[in-house]
């Protein structure tokens, strides 16, 4: 049944453009139904701000069902808020109680510059995928889909890794702003499948090298996996490291043959 | 031979379905289509707007062929498009299960599912290329579900009696989109595609009757810019957000299609909207969107309501004899897998009667108790685990212990830009793909067919048809962005956006969107009638003039302003909403998702009027949203017999 949550104090990060210093702005939500999602609570606040002739708070969001990876937000210092295994858009006000103070910040990482308020630029993720996060298979040339059986445990493990939504919570949660969970997830997805073998080591080297241009280094804190809305396992980083190490040998060997 | 399809009342509505037997049409087209030599392809620039399944697959494939492609998305990344949210699966006539499927079976199911209001030639082609899609996506590494032998697994979906749906847990759309996105990314990395992200189309430029390019607004800076090309593809999705509450993502909008319409592209069947039966019911007034629960749940879930009006026991305490499994009762042959339109209406009628469940009595039960008993919890968890979790997060109830509550919600729009067999709109050089066009689903789309159509259009249709359109342009000059028409359209857009800022009224764009959505839902939703539609056609324009007088957009036009973006989208929804109601009013029959109360049998089933309405209604913009002109493309059925659609 519906209940009301009352007297919430929001401290929201406002920053008018990348060059602005930015500051916290305080708003009080007198009461809101606990059926409302966290982003719906921000909608209500934005409606109020427009009513007061003020600019609405800018934040990224789209599908509001936890799959597009557009929404972000550090809520009380936790990426996507207090609920494990879910995105900000899936967080509901029933996770909060009367008189709570809620601090809302953007992802903070050098590789994700702040655009405005709570919106950041995550294009570095796309650059990594462009460098090798694919299987080269031009349209039209594919053999019959059942030609190569994929053992179920392999398909399942690939799917577990492929569930990544590219939201960037892993980077935001990491004290080093490392993107190893994101890159490891894509490499695990593609490198486990028989279709991904031809480019396996080229892919590992290209993606990791591009990652290193943008992001910090992993020191095995594991915050990424704890913050991941899809609960992607740290194992993907182990596989990435193994393949990258092998790639350095294999690719060098191939080069010397040329 | 004169084709029956080619009997339009309007010379622009020539379907161009090739001659020959149905099974040969696509081969005949490919055999006769004009080609562009590989070394000449780089001389052509193609703009692709939208990076969902249709857009990403088209952009990647065209770039692989050698065309220069500019791809546009208003998202931060091409991977965000709403194709990503499709849960259940993708159909293909592979017949891997050996259960009697075939291309012609998928074709007839789709035609029948669409209540005989789609073009035979297009639908047959869709069924043909469906098999290539699965091959293509597996080669790209899409981790489809597999059986213990490592072969691909299938499930069944509404409106079909075979298992032809391929799936990747409850995230099939995500996995397919990521496959297409990765292929697009590869081309971006190679330089074949230039990507413009956070960049929204705000108008189409037509010069001498041909699409010459687009005008965009950079969402980060507010800057307007012109882009010229030899061809423009709109893969910009559907317009379900006209209803405000829908399962669409928050930013889905009709702007690209509507701008094209205003520039001369006919808009077909705008009243054909799909209300999906299994969504989580609205919980409160702050609700911003509705969440779909995959149709695949109906494979094992049983839909019911209590028999008694004053029922107040918890679901599990209600004994079998006091439950009405209404889909199984009404449609025994298909049971809980009756098609979407039919299942939705059945639920609505019971809720309207007062038999609804939940705190607001606005839902019906979808119950897994029997499945858990039959299969055991681990199997149910394996099949639907992530959907159950999603439900629990939103509704705060555990579906392993108590049945889900579901209710229909707007989900997909079958209407869209009119296109011919080549997916070209009535503006030469302007193509529409995926949900943005009207082509394949008639009045009702079958489950797991949206992903199929998006990828069919992008991977296997457009690359052939665009070459056919471009070949005659070889070595001819086309207008560049220095043409005065580009500047004129840019200025128009600038004035329009400044206009929203200048109103300085009292209500936000969201307020108007919500009010508009309520009108469209009430009058042009699951059931429509003449009175309601006529009322809508006075109430929508009244609200629209309020919008023009009382809108408030705070902030400025320079730099990011989400309120301003929203205002432009809501403006277009107003005009579209008017056309939806007009289309619904003039289609005096019931068919699929378009159910006119006046045209039904005693049992409440749809009554089509094939004598007068076996056609596509294609609307022409006249400069005034209240006075669009209706044209007809006659539909003729050579292979399938027109029949009353029955799932009993």
Mean pLDDT of chain B: 95
Q: Could you say which overall geometry of chain B the principal axes of the C-alpha atoms support?
A: globular
Structural class of chain A: alpha+beta
What CATH architecture of the largest domain in chain A would you give? Orthogonal Bundle
- For this structure, what is the CATH class of one domain in chain B? Alpha Beta
Mind telling me the CATH superfamily name of the largest domain in chain A? Alpha-helical ferredoxin
Would you identify the regions of chain B where 5 or more consecutive residues have pLDDT less than 50? 1-8
Strand order of the largest sheet of chain B: 5-2-1-9-17
For this structure, the CATH topology of one domain in chain B is Flavocytochrome C3, Chain A, domain 1
Q: In total, how many domains does the architecture of chain A comprise?
A: 2
CATH architectural grouping of one domain in chain B: Alpha-Beta Complex
Helix content of chain A: 25-40%
| End-to-end C-alpha gap of chain A | 70 Å
**Number of helical stretches of at least 4 residues of chain B:** 17
Strands of chain B, total number: 19
Give me the secondary-structure category of chain B. Answer: alpha+beta
CATH class value of the largest domain in chain A = Mainly Alpha
Enumerate how many helices of chain A there are, as a single number: 8
CATH third-tier fold name of the largest domain in chain A: Fumarate Reductase Iron-sulfur Protein, Chain B, domain 2
Distance between the termini of chain B: 40 Å
């Amino acid at each position: 049944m519906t209940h009301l949550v009352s007297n919430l104090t929001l401290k929201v990060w406002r920053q008018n453009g990348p060059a602005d210093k930015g500051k916290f702005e305080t708003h009080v939500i007198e009461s809101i139904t606990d059926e409302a999602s966290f982003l719906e609570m921000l909608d209500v606040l934005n409606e109020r701000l427009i009513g007061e002739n003020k600019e609405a708070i800018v934040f990224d969001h789209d599908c509001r069902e936890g799959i597009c990876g557009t929404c972000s937000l550090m809520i009380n210092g936790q990426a996507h808020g207090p609920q494990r295994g879910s995105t900000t858009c899936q967080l509901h006000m029933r996770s909060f109680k009367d008189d709570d103070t809620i601090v809302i910040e953007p992802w903070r990482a050098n590789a994700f510059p702040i655009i405005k308020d709570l919106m950041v630029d995550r294009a570095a993720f796309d650059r990594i995928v462009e460098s090798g996060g694919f299987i080269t298979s031009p349209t039209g040339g594919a053999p019959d889909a059942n030609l190569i059986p994929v053992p179920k445990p392999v398909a399942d493990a690939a799917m577990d890794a492929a569930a990544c939504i590219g939201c960037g919570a892993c980077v935001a949660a990491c004290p080093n702003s490392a993107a190893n969970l994101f890159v490891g997830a894509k490499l695990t997805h593609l490198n486990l499948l028989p279709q991904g073998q031809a480019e396996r080591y080229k892919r590992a080297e290209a993606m990791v090298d591009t990652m290193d241009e943008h992001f910090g280094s992993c020191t095995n804190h594991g915050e990424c996996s704890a913050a991941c809305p899809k609960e992607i396992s740290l194992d993907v980083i182990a596989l990435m490291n193994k393949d990258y190490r092998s790639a350095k040998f294999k690719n060098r060997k191939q080069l010397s043959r040329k | 031979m004169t084709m029956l399809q080619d009997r339009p009342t309007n010379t622009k509505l020539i379907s161009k379905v090739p001659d020959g037997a149905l099974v040969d049409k696509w081969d005949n087209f490919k055999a006769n289509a004009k080609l562009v030599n590989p070394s000449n392809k780089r001389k052509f620039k193609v703009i692709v707007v939208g990076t969902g399944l249709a857009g990403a697959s088209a952009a990647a494939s065209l770039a692989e062929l050698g065309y220069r492609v500019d791809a546009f998305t208003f998202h931060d990344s091409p991977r965000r498009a709403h194709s990503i949210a499709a849960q259940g699966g993708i159909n293909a006539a592979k017949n891997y299960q050996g259960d009697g499927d075939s291309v012609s079976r998928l074709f007839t199911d789709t035609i029948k599912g669409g209540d005989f209001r789609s073009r035979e030639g297009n639908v047959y082609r869709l069924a043909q290329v469906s098999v290539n899609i699965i091959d293509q996506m597996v080669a790209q590494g899409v981790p489809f579900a597999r059986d213990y032998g490592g072969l691909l697994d299938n499930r069944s979906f509404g409106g079909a009696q075979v298992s032809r749906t391929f799936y990747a847990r409850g995230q099939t759309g995500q996995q397919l989109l990521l496959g297409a996105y990765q292929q697009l990314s590869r081309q971006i990395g190679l330089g074949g595609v230039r990507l413009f992200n956070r960049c929204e189309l705000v108008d189409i430029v037509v010069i001498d009757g041909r699409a010459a390019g687009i005008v965009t607004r950079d969402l980060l800076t507010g800057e307007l810019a012109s882009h010229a090309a030899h061809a423009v593809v709109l893969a910009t999705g559907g317009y379900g957000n006209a209803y405000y509450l829908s399962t669409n993502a928050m930013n889905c909008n009709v702007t690209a299609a509507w701008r094209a319409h205003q520039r001369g592209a006919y808009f077909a069947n705008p009243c054909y909207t799909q209300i999906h039966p299994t969504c989580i019911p609205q919980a409160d007034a702050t609700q911003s969107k509705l969440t779909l629960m995959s149709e695949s749940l109906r494979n094992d879930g049983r839909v019911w309501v209590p028999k008694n009006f004053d029922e107040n026991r918890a679901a599990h305490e209600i004994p079998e004899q006091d439950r009405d499994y209404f889909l199984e009762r009404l449609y025994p042959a298909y049971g809980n897998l009756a098609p979407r339109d039919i299942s939705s209406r059945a639920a609505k009628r019971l809720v309207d009667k007062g038999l609804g469940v939940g705190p607001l009595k606005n839902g019906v039960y979808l119950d897994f108790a029997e499945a858990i008993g039959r299969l055991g919890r681990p199997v149910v968890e394996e099949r639907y685990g992530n959907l159950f979790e999603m439900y629990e997060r939103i509704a705060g109830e555990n579906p392993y212990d108590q049945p889900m509550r579901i209710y229909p919600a707007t989900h997909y729009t079958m209407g869209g830009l009119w296109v011919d067999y080549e997916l070209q709109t009535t503006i030469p050089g302007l193509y529409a793909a995926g949900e943005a066009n009207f082509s394949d689903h008639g009045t009702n789309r079958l489950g797991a067919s949206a992903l199929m159509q998006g990828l069919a259009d992008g991977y296997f249709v457009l690359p052939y048809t665009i070459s056919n359109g471009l070949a005659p342009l070889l070595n001819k000059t086309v207008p560049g962005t220095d043409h005065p028409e580009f500047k004129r359209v840019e200025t128009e857009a600038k004035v329009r956006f400044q206009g929203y800022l200048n109103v300085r009224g009292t209500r936000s764009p969201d307020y108007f969107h919500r009010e508009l959505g309520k009108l469209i839902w009430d009058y042009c939703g699951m059931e429509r009638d003449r009175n309601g539609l006529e009322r809508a056609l006075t109430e929508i324009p009244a609200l629209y003039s309020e919008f023009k007088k009382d809108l408030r957009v705070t902030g400025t036009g320079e730099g990011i302003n989400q309120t301003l973006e929203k205002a432009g989208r809501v403006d277009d929804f107003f005009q579209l909403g008017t056309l939806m109601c007009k289309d619904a009013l003039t289609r005096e029959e019931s068919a699929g998702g378009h159910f006119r109360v006046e045209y039904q049998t005693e049992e409440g089933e749809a009554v089509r009027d094939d004598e007068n309405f076996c056609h596509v209604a294609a609307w022409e913009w006249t400069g005034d949203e209240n006075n669009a002109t209706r044209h007809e493309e006659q539909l003729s059925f050579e292979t399938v017999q027109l029949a009353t659609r029955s799932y009993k």
